[in-house]
Amino acid sequence: MSGHGPRPGSLEISSSLADNAVRVSLQGELDLASARQMEEHFASIDEQAPSRVVIDLGGLAFIDSSGLRVLLLADARARERGYELVLLPGQEPVQRVFEMTGALDILRFEL
Fold first, then answer.
1. What's the burial of 104, exposed, middle or buried (CB within 10 Å: 0-12/13-18/19+)?
2. What does the pLDDT read at residue 2?
């Protein structure tokens, strides 16, 4: 392997804080195997008390219902705690999951 990108079936999460906004970039697969990792990451974001969280889905190759659930719960948590959560669209197969499930009506996407 060349060491570029996550290994198949895994998820890499990177985040940065600037101007009280957290930007989270996802690479790989957000599925049952990585959902817990993502939940833990959101818990650590809450500790930073941001005013805004931006999740970049551009590096996701795959998302399943477990991954979708994590994002929906993160959105609900953001509303409860009073910060804004927005998503940057992923590749077409990833976006199709949001379209097919009706999650586009719940989650906020920005271009």
1. middle
2. 44
> Hey, what CATH topology would domain 11-105 get?
Transcription Regulator spoIIAA (3.30.750)
CA distances in angstroms from 69 to 3, 38, 77, listed in the order given: 30, 11, 12
Residue 57 and residue 95: Cα distance in Å, rounded? 9
Query: What is this structure's pTM?
Result: 0.90
Residue 85's contacts (CB-CB under 8 Å, 6 or more residues apart) are 52, 53, 55, 74, 75, 78, 79, 107, 108
Position 41 scores a pLDDT of 95
Which residues of the chain, if any, have pLDDT below 50? 1-3
Q: Residue ranges of the domains in the chain?
A: 11-105
